[in-house]
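Input (structure):
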C-alpha cells in the first residue's frame, strides 16, 4: 500500500517511518529533550516499537536513565513531604508559643487593672516597675519569627509544590498558616494595647516610686534620730532617786535635750506632708509603710510627753526641795 509522500520521501509507510524513528530514537539517548517531540510526532507508535532499533547497550543505558529518573522523582516527592512535615511541626510550635503569649498578655492586662491605683511600698513598686518588661523581648522576638514565617507564604499555607503532596498534609499546612496569621494578629494587637496601658501606668509608677522613695528615706532618717533620742531618755534616773543638789543640773540637761530634739518636729512634719501628697496622686501606702508612719508619729509624741513630764517633775522637786524652797529653809 502506497501513501502520499511524507517528509519528501517516496518510501512505503513503514519503511520511511521506521528509518526516521530509528534516527530520532538514537538522538533521544543523548538528548532527552527530544523525547517529547518523538512522542508528540508519532503518538500511534508505542515505546516498544521505538526501541526495536536500539542495541542492547543502548537499551540498557536507556533503562538505566529511566530508573534514575523515577528514583529522583520519588526522592523529590519524599523530600517535599518530609520538608513540609518538618515545617508544619515548627509552625505548630510557633502557634503554641503565640497562644501561650496571648494568655500571658491577657493575664498581665487583668493584673494591671487590679493593681490600680499604683502604690504600696518601695519594694512593691520596684517589682511593679518590671511588671511587663520581663517578657517584652520574648513577645517581640516571637512576633518577628511569625512575621518571617508568614512574609512570603500564601494564605493557603506553605509555599511548597503541592501537586505531589497528600491532601491531608496540605490541608494541615493551610490550617496552620491561617491559625498562625490569626493568632499573630491578635497577639500583636493585644500587646500594643497592653503596652499603651503599661505606658500610662508606668508613668504613674515612676512618679509614685520617686515620691515613695523620698518618703521612705525621710522615715528612715526620722527613725534613726528618734532611736538615738530614745536611747538617751532610757538613761534617765527617776526623779525621786536624784540628789537635791543635782536637781538644777538635771533640769538644765533636760532643757538642753528638749532643744536638741526640736528639729525632729520639722522632720515629722515633712514625713506627714510627703505621705499626704500621695493621696491626690491616687497612690496608696502599703500596710507596712502606713504602720511605720503611724509608729513614727506615736514615738515622737511619746518622746515629747516624756521630756515635758520629766522637766515638770524636776522643776517641782527643785521648787519643793531646792535651796530656795520652804522645806530647805526650815531644815536649816
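Output (sequence):
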Amino acid at each position: 500500500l502506497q501513501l502520499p509522500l511524507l517528509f519528501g520521501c517516496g518510501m512505503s509507510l513503514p519503511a520511511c517511518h521506521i528509518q526516521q524513528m530509528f534516527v530520532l530514537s538514537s538522538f533521544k539517548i543523548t538528548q532527552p529533550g527530544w523525547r517529547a517531540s518523538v512522542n508528540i510526532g508519532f503518538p500511534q507508535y508505542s515505546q516498544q516499537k521505538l526501541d526495536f532499533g536500539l542495541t542492547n547497550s543502548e537499551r540498557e543505558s536507556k533503562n538505566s536513565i529511566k530508573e534514575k529518573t523515577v528514583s529522583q522523582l520519588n526522592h523529590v516527592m519524599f523530600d517535599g513531604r518530609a520538608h513540609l512535615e518538618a515545617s508544619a511541626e515548627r509552625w505548630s510550635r510557633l502557634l503554641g508559643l503565640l497562644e501561650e503569649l496571648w494568655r500571658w498578655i491577657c493575664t498581665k492586662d487583668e493584673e494591671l487593672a487590679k493593681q490600680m491605683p499604683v502604690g504600696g511600698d518601695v519594694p512593691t513598686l520596684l517589682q511593679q516597675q518590671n511588671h511587663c518588661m520581663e517578657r517584652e523581648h520574648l513577645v517581640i522576638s516571637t512576633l518577628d519569627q511569625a512575621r518571617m514565617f508568614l512574609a512570603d507564604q500564601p494564605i493557603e499555607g506553605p509555599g511548597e509544590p503541592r501537586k505531589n503532596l497528600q491532601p491531608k498534609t496540605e490541608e494541615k499546612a493551610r490550617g496552620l498558616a491561617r491559625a498562625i496569621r490569626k493568632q499573630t494578629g491578635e497577639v500583636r494587637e493585644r500587646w500594643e494595647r497592653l503596652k499603651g496601658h503599661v505606658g500610662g501606668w508606668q508613668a504613674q509608677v515612676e512618679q509614685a516610686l520617686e515620691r515613695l522613695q523620698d518618703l521612705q528615706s525621710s522615715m528612715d532618717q526620722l527613725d534613726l534620730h528618734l532611736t538615738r533620742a530614745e536611747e538617751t531618755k532610757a538613761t534617765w534616773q527617776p526623779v525621786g532617786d536624784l540628789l537635791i543638789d543635782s536637781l538644777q543640773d538635771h533640769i538644765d540637761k533636760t532643757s538642753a535635750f528638749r532643744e536638741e530634739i526640736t528639729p525632729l518636729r520639722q522632720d515629722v512634719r515633712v514625713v506627714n506632708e510627703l505621705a499626704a501628697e500621695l493621696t491626690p496622686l491616687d497612690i496608696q501606702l502599703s500596710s507596712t509603710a502606713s504602720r511605720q508612719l503611724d509608729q513614727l508619729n506615736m514615738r515622737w509624741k511619746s518622746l515629747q510627753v516624756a521630756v515635758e513630764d520629766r522637766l515638770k517633775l524636776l522643776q517641782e522637786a527643785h521648787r519643793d526641795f531646792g535651796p530656795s524652797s520652804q522645806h530647805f529653809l526650815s531644815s536649816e
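Notes: The chain has eleven helices and two strands. The radius of gyration is 49 Å.
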